[in-house]
């Protein structure tokens, strides 16, 4: 439009001069818009659990699946995302300038992998046995193996290992693991012996050691820009609150264990940055971001912080959202969508503060936007 406008003929000299000035303004505005929409990194690889799973569990024999209504009610229908709409990584992909969401590993084909892959699997943990009572899932080590398969395809598509290495080192790698190692392992003594084998300190050390091994495997396959997402306050989920006397008091035993893990993960970031000077690792403080929403809900437009929008029993958190169940109407007023997972509205808050820190404690040593600029 501006091009046609700028080259229109038969104007008087004064009018032509006036229009030319406005043409410059329109062109500059158009350039500014295109810059803000530009894709900031060539690809985005995602590792995690149900918080970011976008369909990898759909074909598995598992209770940890969300490919049914009302999951996805605000996304155009169920996809396998454990939310009413977008997840944090969907929003981060948008903020990074991607034109579409990063596809699930079980559905990605051909050159699609060059924009990244989501390997996340609901119920997955750092420890391979985590989540086994729910059926099939792809543990963190399994997700890393799937990534290694992807890298072989990238090498083939780009024509060699050198070209693939140069490409992959510019991509963002988001890793959010550990929640299920507490939720579906350590604090589930009926199925697992880990809480009898380890103190919370020892267990966190074990998890961090295993985590580090897998991160180094990713590094050896070309990853250089890592965003490591801390564990949220699992003790404040509707499921945990349903077991409290007043339906509002968080389980500090669980939260304390989560914070021990997060503290060690933050220290691991320093260690990895020292060991790999050609890479950059950063820690995203999801725990405090989430706590901010719970403690200051009105600031973010929330009214309900202690109950799920869709679920059964006390706090709508004793049994998670069932097929065909009618969820709450005002979903943007809820922090939690179901017994464990955030609503799209909460995911957007977490994603935006992960991408661009609002508080110095949100990210260390930099946020995801800083990582993208490296």
In total, how many domains does the architecture comprise?
A: 1
Portion of residues in helices? 40-55%
* Strand composition percent: 5-15%
The CATH class turns out to be Alpha Beta
Q: Which topology does CATH recognise?
A: Rossmann fold
The topology string of helices and strands comes to HHEHHHEHHHEHHEHEEEEHEH
Mean pLDDT: 92
The main pleated sheet reads as:
5 strands, mixed
Structural class assignment: alpha/beta
Counting DSSP E segments of at least 2 residues, the number of strands comes to 9
**CATH architectural name:** 3-Layer(aba) Sandwich
Please name the fourth-level CATH homologous superfamily: SGNH hydrolase
Keywords: Hydrolase, Lipid degradation, Lipid metabolism, Secreted, Signal
Family: Belongs to the 'GDSL' lipolytic enzyme family.
Subcellular location: Secreted
GO molecular function, one term: hydrolase activity, acting on ester bonds
